[in-house]
Specification:
By secondary structure, this protein is an alpha/beta fold. The chain has two domains: 168 residues, Rossmann fold, CATH 3.40.50; 93 residues, ProC C-terminal domain-like fold. It has twelve helices and eight strands. α2 links the parallel β2 and β3. α8 packs across α9. The longest helix has 22 residues. The two termini are 31 Å apart.
Length: 275
C-alpha cells in the first residue's frame, strides 16, 4: 500500500511503525508531510519519505490526516489550492480519488466532506497504539465504501484492536477509550501513593502498582471473561479485597467514575460543535 501522512506527531509515528511492522506497506511507499524538521528526521530514520508541504501527500491514494483539529484549516486549504495544477477542476478530480483517514478529535466526516472532494473515514485511536495495544473506532463518511472501511480497519488493527461504529457513538468512544488510558494511569498513581503512605519504599511502591495494573490488563486481554467475573474471583468474603471494594462502594466511587466519563463525552460533543 502507498500511504501519506499529513502531520508527523506521535500518533502518526505509531501508526506508521505499525503499518511497516505488519508489512502493510514498505517505508519507501510512505510519505510524511510536516513543517517540523525534528519530526521529519524521526520518520526519515525509518526509511520513510518526508516533505515540508502537504501537496506532496497527493501522490498517495490513502492520506491520513494526523494534525491537531486547530490546524485543520491550514492543512485542508493547502490541499485545496494545488498550485501545480492549472485547472482547479483537475485538482478537485485528483482529490476526489483519494481516501482520507482522519484521526482529528472532534472533527466530523461531514465537516471534512464539505472541504474535500474525496472519501472520508474517521478514526478515534488511543495512546496504547504506540505499544501495539491500541483501541480504535472507525466510522464511515457518506462517500466512503465498505472497502474503505475494511482497509481502515486493517491499518488500525496493525496497532491493536479496531471496530467499526456509527459516528454518532464517537463522543462515547472518545470518553471511554480515547481518554481512558489517563484513567488507568491515574489509578496506578493512586495505588503507588497508597503504597508509599503504607511505608513501602518508592521504587517498590512504583513496581507493585505498575505491574499489578499490567498483569490485570493482560488477564483481560487473553481471556473472554468479563472484568466482573475476575473481580469476584479475587474477592473473598470478609477479606482484604472486599474491605477495599466495600469502601469504594460506600463512597460511591463507581458512580463518580461513570459521571466522570459522561463529563468527558459531553466535552467531546462540545468540541465537535466548535470544530
Amino acid at each position: 500500500m502507498h500511504f501519506a501522512f499529513i502531520g508527523a506527531g506521535n500518533m502518526a509515528e505509531a501508526i506508521a511503525r505499525a503499518v511497516v511492522k505488519n508489512e502493510l506497506s514498505a517505508p519507501a511507499k510512505i510519505i510524511v508531510c510536516d513543517p517540523a524538521a525534528e519530526r521529519r528526521q524521526i520518520f526519515a530514520a525509518l526509511g520513510i519519505q518526508t516533505a515540508t508541504d502537504n501537496l506532496s501527500a497527493l501522490s498517495a491514494p490513502v492520506i491520513v490526516l494526523a494534525v491537531k483539529p486547530q490546524q485543520m484549516d491550514a492543512a485542508l486549504t493547502a490541499l485545496a489550492s494545488d498550485n501545480r495544477v492549472a485547472d482547479a477542476r483537475v485538482a478537485d478530480a485528483c482529490i476526489a480519488e483519494k481516501l482520507f483517514i482522519s484521526i482529528m478529535a472532534g472533527v466530523s466526516t461531514a465537516t471534512l466532506e464539505k472541504r474535500l472532494a474525496g472519501r472520508v473515514m474517521r478514526v478515534m485511536p488511543n495512546l496504547p497504539i504506540v505499544g501495539g495495544a491500541g483501541m480504535s473506532a472507525v466510522a464511515r463518511g457518506a462517500r466512503a465504501t465498505a472497502a474503505d472501511e475494511e482497509l481502515t480497519l486493517r491499518i488500525f488493527r496493525a496497532g491493536g484492536e479496531a471496530i467499526a461504529l456509527a459516528e454518532k457513538h464517537f463522543d462515547a468512544v472518545t470518553a471511554v477509550s480515547g481518554s481512558g488510558p489517563a484513567y488507568v494511569f491515574w489509578l496506578t498513581e493512586m495505588m503507588q501513593t497508597a503504597a508509599q503512605k503504607l511505608g513501602l519504599p518508592d521504587d517498590a511502591a512504583a513496581l507493585l502498582a505498575r505491574q499489578t495494573v499490567v498483569g490485570a490488563a493482560k488477564i483481560l486481554s487473553t481471556t473472554d471473561l468479563p472484568p466482573s467475573v475476575w473481580r469476584e474471583r479475587v474477592t473473598s468474603q470478609g477479606g482484604t479485597t472486599a474491605a477495599a471494594l466495600n469502601y469504594l462502594a460506600a463512597n460511591q466511587t463507581g458512580d463518580a467514575v461513570v459521571a466522570a466519563i459522561a463529563a468527558a463525552a459531553k466535552r467531546s460533543a462540545e468540541l465537535g460543535k466548535s470544530n
